[in-house]
Amino acid sequence: MMGRACLRALVLTGVVLHPASARAQSATDLATTTRGPATQLTPQPGSAGLPTPIDPASCSKSDGDWAERALIRSQVPQLGLPPMPHPDDNPPTAAKIELGRKLFFDRRLSINKTMSCAMCHVPEQAFTTWKLQSAVGVEGRSVKRNSPTLLNVGFLNPLFHDGRDETLETQFIAPLVARNEMANPSAGWVVSFLNRDSTYHARFQGAFGAPASLDRMGQALAAYQRSLLAGNAPFDRWHYGGEADALSPAQKRGFELFTGKADCAGCHPIGDDHALFTDQAFHDTGYGFLREEMRQNPPETTRVQLAPGVFVDVDFDRVASVSSKREADLGRYEITEDPADRWKFRTPGLRNVAMTGPYMHDGGFNTLREVLDFYNEGGPGHPEQSPLVYPLGLSDAELGDLEAFLESLTSPNLNCLAAEARSQPPDNH
Fold it and tell me: Where does the record locate the signal sequence feature (predicted)?
Protein backbone atom coordinates (compact mmCIF):
# COMPACT_ATOMS: atom_id res chain seq x y z
CA MET A 1 0.00 0.00 0.00
CA MET A 2 1.16 3.54 -0.69
CA GLY A 3 1.94 5.64 2.39
CA ARG A 4 0.69 9.16 3.02
CA ALA A 5 4.19 10.59 2.78
CA CYS A 6 4.61 9.12 -0.69
CA LEU A 7 1.25 10.52 -1.79
CA ARG A 8 2.15 13.95 -0.46
CA ALA A 9 5.44 13.84 -2.33
CA LEU A 10 3.57 13.06 -5.53
CA VAL A 11 1.31 16.05 -4.95
CA LEU A 12 4.20 18.42 -4.31
CA THR A 13 6.03 17.32 -7.44
CA GLY A 14 2.96 17.74 -9.63
CA VAL A 15 2.36 14.05 -10.33
CA VAL A 16 -0.95 14.15 -8.46
CA LEU A 17 -2.55 17.57 -8.32
CA HIS A 18 -6.15 16.67 -7.68
CA PRO A 19 -7.89 13.38 -8.30
CA ALA A 20 -7.76 12.40 -11.98
CA SER A 21 -5.77 15.47 -13.06
CA ALA A 22 -2.84 13.41 -14.31
CA ARG A 23 -3.33 12.01 -17.77
CA ALA A 24 -2.91 8.42 -16.59
CA GLN A 25 -6.64 8.07 -15.95
CA SER A 26 -9.36 9.04 -18.38
CA ALA A 27 -13.02 9.88 -17.85
CA THR A 28 -13.82 6.38 -19.05
CA ASP A 29 -11.50 4.89 -16.42
CA LEU A 30 -13.06 7.03 -13.68
CA ALA A 31 -16.53 5.84 -14.55
CA THR A 32 -15.58 2.17 -14.26
CA THR A 33 -13.06 2.02 -11.37
CA THR A 34 -13.87 -0.13 -8.33
CA ARG A 35 -12.51 -0.26 -4.77
CA GLY A 36 -9.62 -2.53 -3.93
CA PRO A 37 -6.05 -2.61 -2.69
CA ALA A 38 -3.33 -0.87 -4.66
CA THR A 39 -2.06 -2.97 -7.52
CA GLN A 40 1.55 -3.96 -8.06
CA LEU A 41 3.54 -1.46 -10.10
CA THR A 42 3.07 -2.49 -13.71
CA PRO A 43 4.73 -0.97 -16.79
CA GLN A 44 2.20 0.21 -19.37
CA PRO A 45 2.93 0.31 -23.10
CA GLY A 46 3.57 3.82 -24.38
CA SER A 47 2.52 6.84 -22.36
CA ALA A 48 -1.27 7.18 -22.47
CA GLY A 49 -1.17 7.22 -26.26
CA LEU A 50 1.01 10.33 -26.48
CA PRO A 51 2.21 11.33 -29.95
CA THR A 52 5.89 11.45 -30.78
CA PRO A 53 7.24 14.81 -29.54
CA ILE A 54 7.65 17.44 -32.22
CA ASP A 55 11.35 17.86 -32.97
CA PRO A 56 12.41 21.47 -33.68
CA ALA A 57 15.75 20.19 -34.99
CA SER A 58 13.97 18.44 -37.88
CA CYS A 59 13.01 21.79 -39.41
CA SER A 60 15.23 22.81 -42.30
CA LYS A 61 15.55 26.50 -41.49
CA SER A 62 15.25 28.96 -44.35
CA ASP A 63 17.54 31.90 -44.87
CA GLY A 64 16.51 35.05 -43.10
CA ASP A 65 15.31 36.04 -39.67
CA TRP A 66 12.70 33.81 -37.98
CA ALA A 67 10.58 36.79 -36.92
CA GLU A 68 10.42 38.03 -40.51
CA ARG A 69 9.28 34.57 -41.63
CA ALA A 70 6.67 34.57 -38.89
CA LEU A 71 5.47 38.01 -40.00
CA ILE A 72 5.07 36.85 -43.60
CA ARG A 73 3.24 33.72 -42.44
CA SER A 74 0.76 35.82 -40.47
CA GLN A 75 0.03 37.93 -43.56
CA VAL A 76 -0.14 35.29 -46.31
CA PRO A 77 -3.00 32.74 -46.09
CA GLN A 78 -2.05 29.06 -46.01
CA LEU A 79 -3.96 26.44 -47.96
CA GLY A 80 -7.13 25.65 -46.05
CA LEU A 81 -7.01 28.72 -43.82
CA PRO A 82 -8.65 32.14 -44.26
CA PRO A 83 -6.60 35.37 -44.07
CA MET A 84 -5.57 36.15 -40.50
CA PRO A 85 -7.66 39.06 -39.14
CA HIS A 86 -5.32 41.63 -37.59
CA PRO A 87 -6.87 44.47 -35.55
CA ASP A 88 -6.53 47.89 -37.11
CA ASP A 89 -4.81 49.16 -33.97
CA ASN A 90 -2.32 46.28 -33.85
CA PRO A 91 -0.81 45.60 -37.27
CA PRO A 92 1.88 42.92 -37.04
CA THR A 93 5.59 43.69 -37.23
CA ALA A 94 8.64 41.50 -36.81
CA ALA A 95 9.65 43.51 -33.73
CA LYS A 96 6.28 42.89 -32.06
CA ILE A 97 6.43 39.17 -32.86
CA GLU A 98 9.95 38.86 -31.46
CA LEU A 99 8.98 40.73 -28.31
CA GLY A 100 5.86 38.61 -27.95
CA ARG A 101 7.92 35.42 -28.15
CA LYS A 102 10.24 36.73 -25.43
CA LEU A 103 7.29 37.52 -23.15
CA PHE A 104 5.73 34.12 -23.89
CA PHE A 105 8.77 32.24 -22.59
CA ASP A 106 9.77 34.45 -19.67
CA ARG A 107 9.26 32.72 -16.31
CA ARG A 108 10.07 35.96 -14.53
CA LEU A 109 6.56 37.15 -15.38
CA SER A 110 5.12 34.92 -12.64
CA ILE A 111 5.08 35.67 -8.91
CA ASN A 112 7.96 33.32 -8.04
CA LYS A 113 9.72 33.39 -11.42
CA THR A 114 8.92 29.75 -12.22
CA MET A 115 6.01 29.86 -14.72
CA SER A 116 5.78 31.10 -18.27
CA CYS A 117 3.05 30.88 -20.89
CA ALA A 118 5.11 28.21 -22.66
CA MET A 119 4.94 25.85 -19.68
CA CYS A 120 1.25 25.18 -20.38
CA HIS A 121 1.56 25.68 -24.15
CA VAL A 122 4.66 23.65 -24.99
CA PRO A 123 5.92 24.10 -28.58
CA GLU A 124 7.10 20.49 -28.85
CA GLN A 125 3.61 19.39 -27.79
CA ALA A 126 1.75 21.43 -30.41
CA PHE A 127 1.50 24.41 -28.03
CA THR A 128 -0.56 22.49 -25.48
CA THR A 129 0.37 20.01 -22.72
CA TRP A 130 0.09 16.31 -23.46
CA LYS A 131 0.94 14.85 -20.07
CA LEU A 132 -1.65 16.52 -17.84
CA GLN A 133 -5.42 16.51 -18.19
CA SER A 134 -5.65 19.93 -16.55
CA ALA A 135 -3.05 22.65 -16.34
CA VAL A 136 -0.69 23.30 -13.43
CA GLY A 137 0.22 26.75 -12.14
CA VAL A 138 2.81 28.06 -9.70
CA GLU A 139 3.76 25.75 -6.83
CA GLY A 140 1.77 22.91 -8.39
CA ARG A 141 -1.60 24.64 -8.02
CA SER A 142 -4.32 22.93 -10.01
CA VAL A 143 -6.30 24.52 -12.82
CA LYS A 144 -9.59 22.82 -13.55
CA ARG A 145 -9.33 23.00 -17.33
CA ASN A 146 -7.14 21.58 -20.05
CA SER A 147 -4.63 23.84 -21.80
CA PRO A 148 -5.97 24.42 -25.34
CA THR A 149 -3.56 24.52 -28.26
CA LEU A 150 -2.48 27.92 -29.53
CA LEU A 151 -2.16 26.73 -33.12
CA ASN A 152 -4.42 28.95 -35.26
CA VAL A 153 -5.67 30.68 -32.10
CA GLY A 154 -5.81 34.01 -33.94
CA PHE A 155 -8.94 32.83 -35.77
CA LEU A 156 -10.89 32.11 -32.58
CA ASN A 157 -13.51 34.45 -31.19
CA PRO A 158 -14.35 34.09 -28.39
CA LEU A 159 -11.40 32.61 -26.49
CA PHE A 160 -11.11 30.16 -23.59
CA HIS A 161 -13.34 27.10 -23.21
CA ASP A 162 -16.08 29.33 -21.77
CA GLY A 163 -15.61 32.33 -24.07
CA ARG A 164 -14.64 34.72 -21.30
CA ASP A 165 -12.49 36.91 -23.54
CA GLU A 166 -12.77 38.04 -27.15
CA THR A 167 -9.29 39.24 -28.13
CA LEU A 168 -5.74 38.00 -27.80
CA GLU A 169 -4.74 41.53 -26.80
CA THR A 170 -6.55 41.13 -23.46
CA GLN A 171 -6.69 37.33 -23.02
CA PHE A 172 -3.31 37.12 -21.25
CA ILE A 173 -4.36 39.20 -18.25
CA ALA A 174 -6.46 36.49 -16.60
CA PRO A 175 -3.69 33.85 -16.33
CA LEU A 176 -1.19 36.56 -15.40
CA VAL A 177 -3.02 37.32 -12.13
CA ALA A 178 -4.91 34.07 -11.41
CA ARG A 179 -3.69 32.61 -8.11
CA ASN A 180 -3.55 29.10 -9.54
CA GLU A 181 -1.69 30.14 -12.69
CA MET A 182 1.02 32.84 -12.71
CA ALA A 183 -0.26 34.41 -9.47
CA ASN A 184 1.01 37.96 -9.86
CA PRO A 185 -0.47 40.43 -7.33
CA SER A 186 -1.56 42.71 -10.18
CA ALA A 187 -0.98 43.32 -13.88
CA GLY A 188 0.69 46.60 -12.98
CA TRP A 189 3.27 44.69 -10.95
CA VAL A 190 4.40 42.91 -14.13
CA VAL A 191 4.46 46.11 -16.19
CA SER A 192 6.67 47.74 -13.56
CA PHE A 193 9.12 44.84 -13.80
CA LEU A 194 9.25 45.18 -17.59
CA ASN A 195 10.04 48.88 -17.35
CA ARG A 196 12.82 48.26 -14.83
CA ASP A 197 14.49 45.70 -17.08
CA SER A 198 16.90 47.31 -19.55
CA THR A 199 16.46 44.61 -22.19
CA TYR A 200 12.69 44.90 -22.17
CA HIS A 201 12.93 48.68 -22.16
CA ALA A 202 14.89 48.53 -25.41
CA ARG A 203 12.57 45.91 -26.94
CA PHE A 204 9.39 47.90 -26.22
CA GLN A 205 11.00 51.06 -27.56
CA GLY A 206 11.99 49.16 -30.70
CA ALA A 207 8.55 47.62 -31.25
CA PHE A 208 6.33 50.53 -30.17
CA GLY A 209 8.52 53.58 -29.69
CA ALA A 210 7.21 53.69 -26.13
CA PRO A 211 7.81 52.02 -22.75
CA ALA A 212 6.11 48.83 -21.60
CA SER A 213 2.41 49.06 -20.76
CA LEU A 214 -0.36 46.54 -20.31
CA ASP A 215 -1.86 47.20 -23.73
CA ARG A 216 1.53 46.99 -25.50
CA MET A 217 2.31 43.78 -23.68
CA GLY A 218 -0.96 42.33 -24.98
CA GLN A 219 -0.31 43.58 -28.51
CA ALA A 220 3.11 41.90 -28.62
CA LEU A 221 1.82 38.58 -27.27
CA ALA A 222 -1.09 38.70 -29.71
CA ALA A 223 1.20 39.38 -32.67
CA TYR A 224 3.32 36.35 -31.80
CA GLN A 225 0.33 34.07 -31.28
CA ARG A 226 -1.24 35.14 -34.59
CA SER A 227 1.91 33.89 -36.30
CA LEU A 228 1.33 30.32 -35.02
CA LEU A 229 -0.49 29.26 -38.16
CA ALA A 230 -0.75 25.66 -39.29
CA GLY A 231 -2.66 24.80 -42.45
CA ASN A 232 -1.66 22.93 -45.61
CA ALA A 233 -2.57 19.57 -44.04
CA PRO A 234 -3.09 16.48 -46.21
CA PHE A 235 -6.83 17.20 -46.05
CA ASP A 236 -6.24 20.70 -47.43
CA ARG A 237 -4.09 19.44 -50.27
CA TRP A 238 -6.82 16.92 -51.17
CA HIS A 239 -9.96 19.01 -50.61
CA TYR A 240 -8.72 22.48 -51.58
CA GLY A 241 -5.61 21.68 -53.60
CA GLY A 242 -6.95 18.89 -55.77
CA GLU A 243 -4.26 16.31 -54.85
CA ALA A 244 -6.16 13.07 -55.31
CA ASP A 245 -3.55 10.98 -53.50
CA ALA A 246 -3.07 13.28 -50.50
CA LEU A 247 -5.52 11.16 -48.45
CA SER A 248 -5.64 7.41 -47.96
CA PRO A 249 -8.81 5.46 -48.82
CA ALA A 250 -9.63 5.21 -45.10
CA GLN A 251 -9.28 8.97 -44.68
CA LYS A 252 -11.54 9.60 -47.66
CA ARG A 253 -14.16 7.26 -46.18
CA GLY A 254 -13.75 9.14 -42.88
CA PHE A 255 -14.44 12.43 -44.65
CA GLU A 256 -17.69 11.04 -46.02
CA LEU A 257 -18.69 9.99 -42.50
CA PHE A 258 -17.59 13.35 -41.04
CA THR A 259 -19.82 15.27 -43.43
CA GLY A 260 -22.56 12.64 -43.61
CA LYS A 261 -23.65 9.87 -41.25
CA ALA A 262 -21.62 11.09 -38.25
CA ASP A 263 -22.70 14.73 -38.86
CA CYS A 264 -19.51 16.09 -37.28
CA ALA A 265 -19.56 18.99 -39.73
CA GLY A 266 -22.71 20.28 -38.04
CA CYS A 267 -20.50 21.79 -35.32
CA HIS A 268 -17.14 21.54 -37.11
CA PRO A 269 -18.02 23.04 -40.52
CA ILE A 270 -15.97 22.89 -43.71
CA GLY A 271 -16.24 25.93 -45.96
CA ASP A 272 -15.85 26.27 -49.71
CA ASP A 273 -12.34 27.74 -49.55
CA HIS A 274 -11.21 27.19 -45.96
CA ALA A 275 -12.08 25.27 -42.80
CA LEU A 276 -11.48 26.12 -39.16
CA PHE A 277 -13.54 23.08 -38.09
CA THR A 278 -15.43 25.05 -35.43
CA ASP A 279 -18.71 26.94 -35.41
CA GLN A 280 -17.28 29.12 -32.60
CA ALA A 281 -20.50 28.45 -30.67
CA PHE A 282 -21.32 26.93 -27.28
CA HIS A 283 -23.00 23.55 -26.88
CA ASP A 284 -24.02 21.25 -24.05
CA THR A 285 -22.77 17.94 -25.39
CA GLY A 286 -23.61 16.16 -22.15
CA TYR A 287 -19.95 15.81 -21.24
CA GLY A 288 -19.93 18.62 -18.66
CA PHE A 289 -22.98 17.13 -16.97
CA LEU A 290 -21.31 13.71 -16.98
CA ARG A 291 -18.17 15.06 -15.35
CA GLU A 292 -20.19 16.84 -12.66
CA GLU A 293 -22.00 13.59 -11.89
CA MET A 294 -18.62 11.90 -11.56
CA ARG A 295 -17.28 14.71 -9.34
CA GLN A 296 -20.20 14.33 -6.96
CA ASN A 297 -19.93 10.54 -7.03
CA PRO A 298 -16.18 9.84 -7.14
CA PRO A 299 -14.72 6.39 -7.81
CA GLU A 300 -13.49 4.20 -5.00
CA THR A 301 -9.97 3.95 -6.41
CA THR A 302 -7.95 6.11 -8.75
CA ARG A 303 -4.92 5.31 -10.88
CA VAL A 304 -1.75 7.28 -10.15
CA GLN A 305 1.25 7.50 -12.47
CA LEU A 306 4.53 7.09 -10.59
CA ALA A 307 6.87 7.17 -13.59
CA PRO A 308 6.51 6.99 -17.37
CA GLY A 309 4.53 3.83 -18.02
CA VAL A 310 4.28 2.88 -14.32
CA PHE A 311 0.91 3.13 -12.53
CA VAL A 312 -0.62 2.14 -9.20
CA ASP A 313 -4.27 2.05 -8.07
CA VAL A 314 -4.87 3.93 -4.82
CA ASP A 315 -7.96 4.45 -2.65
CA PHE A 316 -9.55 7.66 -3.91
CA ASP A 317 -10.11 9.00 -0.39
CA ARG A 318 -6.40 8.79 0.36
CA VAL A 319 -5.50 10.76 -2.75
CA ALA A 320 -8.25 13.30 -2.04
CA SER A 321 -6.90 13.84 1.49
CA VAL A 322 -3.69 15.35 0.11
CA SER A 323 -5.13 16.95 -3.02
CA SER A 324 -6.93 20.17 -3.75
CA LYS A 325 -10.68 19.75 -4.02
CA ARG A 326 -11.90 19.36 -7.57
CA GLU A 327 -14.10 22.30 -8.51
CA ALA A 328 -17.43 22.15 -10.26
CA ASP A 329 -17.30 23.41 -13.83
CA LEU A 330 -20.50 24.87 -15.27
CA GLY A 331 -18.89 26.14 -18.47
CA ARG A 332 -20.41 29.17 -20.16
CA TYR A 333 -22.76 29.70 -17.18
CA GLU A 334 -19.77 30.89 -15.14
CA ILE A 335 -19.49 33.84 -17.53
CA THR A 336 -23.14 34.70 -18.22
CA GLU A 337 -24.89 33.29 -15.11
CA ASP A 338 -27.70 32.34 -17.47
CA PRO A 339 -29.09 28.92 -16.43
CA ALA A 340 -29.51 28.06 -20.12
CA ASP A 341 -25.70 28.13 -20.44
CA ARG A 342 -24.99 25.43 -17.86
CA TRP A 343 -22.38 22.92 -19.12
CA LYS A 344 -22.02 24.67 -22.46
CA PHE A 345 -18.48 24.92 -23.83
CA ARG A 346 -17.04 26.45 -26.99
CA THR A 347 -16.65 24.08 -29.92
CA PRO A 348 -12.91 23.45 -30.38
CA GLY A 349 -11.29 23.52 -33.78
CA LEU A 350 -10.09 20.16 -35.07
CA ARG A 351 -6.98 21.15 -36.98
CA ASN A 352 -3.98 19.18 -35.67
CA VAL A 353 -6.34 17.40 -33.27
CA ALA A 354 -4.29 14.20 -33.40
CA MET A 355 -1.44 16.22 -31.85
CA THR A 356 -3.37 18.16 -29.20
CA GLY A 357 -4.72 15.66 -26.68
CA PRO A 358 -5.89 15.07 -24.03
CA TYR A 359 -9.38 16.09 -25.11
CA MET A 360 -12.48 17.92 -23.84
CA HIS A 361 -12.45 21.02 -21.64
CA ASP A 362 -10.92 19.15 -18.70
CA GLY A 363 -8.74 16.72 -20.65
CA GLY A 364 -10.89 13.81 -19.54
CA PHE A 365 -10.35 11.70 -22.67
CA ASN A 366 -6.84 10.56 -23.50
CA THR A 367 -7.40 9.41 -27.07
CA LEU A 368 -9.38 10.36 -30.13
CA ARG A 369 -11.09 6.98 -30.03
CA GLU A 370 -12.48 7.75 -26.56
CA VAL A 371 -13.91 11.01 -27.90
CA LEU A 372 -15.42 9.26 -30.90
CA ASP A 373 -16.90 6.55 -28.67
CA PHE A 374 -18.51 9.21 -26.47
CA TYR A 375 -20.23 10.88 -29.42
CA ASN A 376 -21.07 7.59 -31.10
CA GLU A 377 -22.97 6.59 -27.95
CA GLY A 378 -24.81 9.92 -27.95
CA GLY A 379 -23.38 11.25 -24.71
CA PRO A 380 -25.14 10.63 -21.37
CA GLY A 381 -28.46 11.90 -22.73
CA HIS A 382 -29.36 14.24 -19.88
CA PRO A 383 -32.46 16.44 -20.36
CA GLU A 384 -30.61 19.66 -21.31
CA GLN A 385 -28.19 18.00 -23.72
CA SER A 386 -28.01 19.48 -27.22
CA PRO A 387 -30.13 17.66 -29.80
CA LEU A 388 -27.04 17.76 -32.02
CA VAL A 389 -25.59 14.96 -29.88
CA TYR A 390 -27.38 11.65 -30.40
CA PRO A 391 -26.43 7.97 -30.91
CA LEU A 392 -24.73 7.57 -34.29
CA GLY A 393 -24.59 3.82 -34.68
CA LEU A 394 -21.10 3.80 -36.22
CA SER A 395 -19.29 0.46 -36.50
CA ASP A 396 -15.72 -0.09 -35.30
CA ALA A 397 -14.54 0.10 -38.89
CA GLU A 398 -16.35 3.40 -39.42
CA LEU A 399 -14.89 4.80 -36.20
CA GLY A 400 -11.45 3.80 -37.45
CA ASP A 401 -12.04 5.62 -40.74
CA LEU A 402 -13.26 8.70 -38.89
CA GLU A 403 -10.15 8.70 -36.71
CA ALA A 404 -7.98 8.32 -39.81
CA PHE A 405 -9.67 11.39 -41.32
CA LEU A 406 -8.96 13.43 -38.19
CA GLU A 407 -5.31 12.46 -38.47
CA SER A 408 -5.29 13.97 -41.96
CA LEU A 409 -5.77 17.41 -40.37
CA THR A 410 -2.18 17.48 -39.05
CA SER A 411 -0.07 20.22 -40.63
CA PRO A 412 3.52 19.63 -41.78
CA ASN A 413 5.06 22.78 -40.25
CA LEU A 414 4.65 22.07 -36.52
CA ASN A 415 8.36 21.33 -36.21
CA CYS A 416 9.28 24.69 -37.72
CA LEU A 417 6.88 26.56 -35.43
CA ALA A 418 8.60 24.83 -32.50
CA ALA A 419 12.01 25.71 -33.95
CA GLU A 420 11.05 29.39 -34.15
CA ALA A 421 9.78 29.24 -30.60
CA ARG A 422 13.13 27.83 -29.45
CA SER A 423 15.19 30.25 -31.53
CA GLN A 424 16.49 31.88 -28.36
CA PRO A 425 16.87 30.58 -24.79
CA PRO A 426 14.06 31.63 -22.42
CA ASP A 427 14.62 34.25 -19.74
CA ASN A 428 14.59 32.01 -16.67
CA HIS A 429 16.99 33.98 -14.48
Answer: 1-24
